[in-house]
Amino acid sequence: xxxxxxxxxxxxxxxxxxxxxxxxxxxxxxxxxxxxxxxxxxxxxxxxxxxxxxxxxxxxxxxxxxxxxxxxxxxxxxxxxxxxxxxxxxxxxxxxxxxxxxxxxxxxxxxxxxxxxxxxxxxxxxxxxxxxxxxxxxxxxxxxxxxxxxxxxxxxxxxxxxxxxxxxxxxxxx
Length: 174
Prior knowledge:
The chain is α+β, with helices and mostly antiparallel strands. Helices cover about 35% and strands about 30% of the residues. The protein has helices at about 10-20, 65-75, 105-115, 120-130, 140-155; strands spanning about 1-5, 35-40, 45-50, 55-60, 80, 85, 90-95, 100, 120, 160-165, 170-174. The strands form three sheets. A four-stranded mixed sheet has the order 1-2-3-4, covered by helices on one side. Strands 5-6-7-8 form a four-stranded antiparallel sheet, covered by helices on one side. Helix 3 crosses helix 5 (about 140-155). The chain is globular. The two termini are about 25 Å apart. The mean pLDDT is about 90.
């Protein structure tokens, strides 16, 4: 759910490939993002800017160090809504002093629904979760939606309602 922009097309392509490989971004085009990480090179420095957090890294740079810096930046990304805070890259949802740790699949579902105000197509959501599945089984997705709903109720007292119309899925929280 991160959009990467860069002033160097070759560097942008390499960074995108690495972040897709590390499962931090998708190679599926999305309409909404949590953050736009702006990367630019100037005067033998690589600059990272994400939601106001800025890093200045000297070139040449070790790829693992670069990756670590990106992880530090994105781990602090927070979405606040109503009475809760959601940290998508920590897979944590907080409400008052209570917390819920989401599984990877629950996090993919919740993160896509929370930023998609108009909802997300179930087939697209399915392909984000199970990238290699050739045959789509919406029942598998529905099971995970039920588990997520039950976990949010149990852990945080949040009543999550998943509304589906014409294969478009929306999240409503009471």
